[in-house]
Amino acid sequence: MYHANLSTRDETPKRRHIPVVRMRATATLLVAGALAAVAAGCSSSSGDDFTPAAPGTRARPNVIAGELPSLGQFIRLADGSQVSSVSADYLFDAGSDQLRPEAVTAIEKVIPAIKVHDGDVEILGYTDGLGDAGFNEDLSLRRAKAVEQLLIQGGVPESMLEPIGMGEEGSEDNVPDSTKRKVEIVLK
Predict the structure, then answer these.
(1) Which end of the chain is more exposed for a tag (fewer CB within 10 A), N or C?
(2) How far is CA 32 from CA 25, 28, 43, 159, 175, in A?
(3) Which CATH code is given to the segment(s) 75-187?
(4) What is the pLDDT of residue 151?
(5) From start to end residue, where is composition biased (Basic and acidic residues) (predicted)?
(6) How far apart are CA 109 and CA 151, in angstroms?
(7) Rounded CA gap, 15 and 54, in Å?
């Protein structure tokens, strides 16, 4: 029987020992060569011979990260209530409970949906974790009441409105987080 490791006069296989240092050196050279080839393929010369890849056939999704729904739209929650949320930065100046003129226009768009609703309406004011917790609690309530007054002026019965100051609920202490500064209108 023929075997590559067997000689013709000895029937026991001979082992070939390759020194470990030689194998490591060979592996290092192979890796270095592969990296050099990749780097050479990635470099550009003058830029004139660059050809961009063909565009994909899949359409990009039409989603904007962190986008809030329009104030005139409500999202139905699992408990059956509906909520519309808007950033307090859009509605109020920093530290203020006075509605901006453009905020009044936006809130007026939601009044027709509230008028046809036959249940209670909660107006939840939130702040971030910056500043004194007591001040933030008071500010969130004053902002909720400012939105309540605008809804009352728009013809929504006061008896169905409940302004609630949520303060820093859900916010981290001393963290300026614009996603936590908001007013939510919840149709129960």
Answers:
(1) N
(2) 10, 6, 17, 77, 47
(3) 3.30.1330.60
(4) 94
(5) 178-188
(6) 10
(7) 54
